[in-house]
Amino acid sequence: MTAEDKRILEDFTLLKNDKTIYLDSAATSQKPDSVLKAVEEYYKKNNANPLRGLYDLSVRATDDYENARKKVAGFLGAKSAENIIFTRNATESLNLIAYSYAIGTLKPGDEIVISIMEHHSNLLPWQMAARTTGATLKFVECNENGILTAEDLKNALTENTKIVAITQVSNVFGCENNIKEFAALAHEAGAVFVCDGAQSVPHIPVNVTDLDVDFLAFSGHKMYAPMGIGALYAKYELLEKMQPFMYGGEMIEYVTRESATYAEIPHKFEAGTVNVGGAVGLSAAIDYINKIGFDTIEKRENELSTLGINLLKEIPHVHILGDTNPLNHHGIITFTVDDVHPHDIAAILDSDNVAIRAGHHCAQPLLKYMGVMSTARASFALYNKEDDVRAFAESVSKLRSRMGY
Amino acid sequence: MASTFYNEVLTDHNINPGHKHPLPDANFSLEGVNPSCGDDIVLNLKIEDDIIVDGSYEGAGCAISQASADMMLDLIIGKNIDEALKLRDTFMRMIKESVTEEELETLEEASILQDVSHMPARVKCAVLGWRTLGEIIKK
Ligand SMILES: Cc1ncc(COP(=O)(O)O)c(C=O)c1O
Predict the structure, then answer these.
(1) H/E segment holding residue B83
(2) Domain containing B39: what range?
(3) Which of B3, B15, B125 sits opposite A343 (nearest CB)?
(4) What is the three-state SS of A245-307?
(5) Residue A219 belongs to what H/E stretch?
(6) Which of A32, A147, A344, B54 is most buried, judged by most C-beta within 10 A?
């Protein structure tokens, strides 16, 4: 372990104390102590129901919440904090777009275009929106290495295309899509562009203004923040056109027996008591990422992906999905081993304390398209060490003999 | 934990299954699917006068699902329907709750899957063959 490894590991109590070699950060990251402490401090010092209290403590809770919103806006390069709606996670953010924007605007004959590599969370809301409105859902396919080109997208767009929704980084291949180019193409066709940032925001600098996306969804829990907090970035002009997502307290201005006027953006989209503790944790996670710096995070994740791919390539019967260039993996290595089912791979690696994901990674149409039933996936984050990757590869190299081959 | 059942009995049933083949004279066939693993088997049975005179399975899946189906067929071929259902019930209870030592013995090699009960994600693999058996018999 290098001195730097040690320093970073000091920030993560769970990893320091647990035997697990944690290689499932694409599912959820571990949380640094600074995030846990920020949440605890909020509940110990400032907790009250925010936004409606008329006393100092509630004002402090409101400030914590709204400061977190400003922090997220700054982190994503949004023009204003009003562009940020807090949600539970990327899934809820994407559903919010589908219910509040898509259902109100789509008509029969309109088209929604998504890619074949979408997570179920960026697929099922669009299936629902298409079913509800009579619009058509169309897929753009990638090549066998997971590469999706602007040409592919361009060919799928027509004058009927109203929404294009594509992930920035694939949770299966780890590859990055050229979102800036894709968003421009969508706009040219007269469609809005929805970016699924669940796997990109934790790993690379994302600037919504530069990318010129109309919506971007992400989850806090994959970027060192607690579970249960995420956000949606949306352009203000679009928010102005959108209906509320859920109805109830906190999102209203004036209510009569029959009707109500809604609170201002963004509160209009945040019904019910909000998750201040989560927002504070997300804010602390952003501070943590900024302290370490994306340069360091990307360098480390690239080193680990490169080492992992090079080691796996040497092992017979192992097949890696995605780009042959390790720098286009963002810490994600999805693979199969001949004759060993991915769930058996995960179970055997677990007996060596190596924790990886196995299954369909919530991307069943993609795996079907790739001709595999399921795969195994190791994913790295800032706190992983070269030793972790070596232990993983060592365990993979013994899989087939342990399965009796 | 996993190493407790990834043993020779399991890997042998997975790699050299005794009952994984088509069964042209089967009079009952049913597909069983476990979407979480992508396990997909077809269980074939030849039942005459309430006796399971022959059986096989086909398909693909993880080692636990395949070995479990193979071990199940070892147990049920030659048994009558009631006996097979009783074994099924014992197996299900072994995975989901608990069984006595004597009950465990009736499951012979299939008893190696007892520890799957600690791994909710794998329970569906282990019970796939048995669940499909139950569905065939109900019909
Ligand atoms: C690309 C992508 N989109 C969306 C999601 C959904 O995230 P969540 O479950 O936090 O809502 C994930 C999580 O696995 C993901 O990888």
Answers:
(1) helix B81-96
(2) 2-138
(3) B125
(4) CCCCCCCEEEECCCCEEECCCCHHHCCCCCCHHHHHHHHHHHHHHHHHCHHHHHHHHHHHHHH
(5) strand A215-219
(6) A344
Which structure tokens are listed for A347?
């179970």
Strand partners for A113: A138, A164
Length of chain A as a residue count? 405
Tokens of A72: 């997220």
Please, which residues 294-353 of chain A have a Cβ atom closer than 8 Å to chain B?
340-344, 347-348, 350-351
Inspect the interface and report whether the beta carbons of B2 and A348 lie closer than 8 Å.
yes
Q: Pick the residue from chain B with its C-alpha nearest to A405.
A: B15
Collapsed DSSP state (helix, strand, coil) of residue B39? strand
- Which neighbouring-strand residues pair with A255? A260
Interval B66-97: pLDDT, tens: 999 999 999 999 999 999 999 999 999 999 88
Q: pLDDT by residue (tens digit) across B34-57?
A: 877 778 899 999 999 999 999 999
The sign one gets for the Cα dihedral B50, B54, B59, B61 is: positive
- Domain count of the fold of chain B: 1
Residue A9 token pair: 């590991």
* Residues of A annotated as part of the active site: 362
Closest to A323 in 3D by CA, of A153, A148, A199: A148
Taking the C-alpha atoms of residue A374 and residue A359, their distance in angstroms, rounded to an integer, is: 5
Q: Which CATH number fits the domain that encloses residue B57? A: 3.90.1010.10
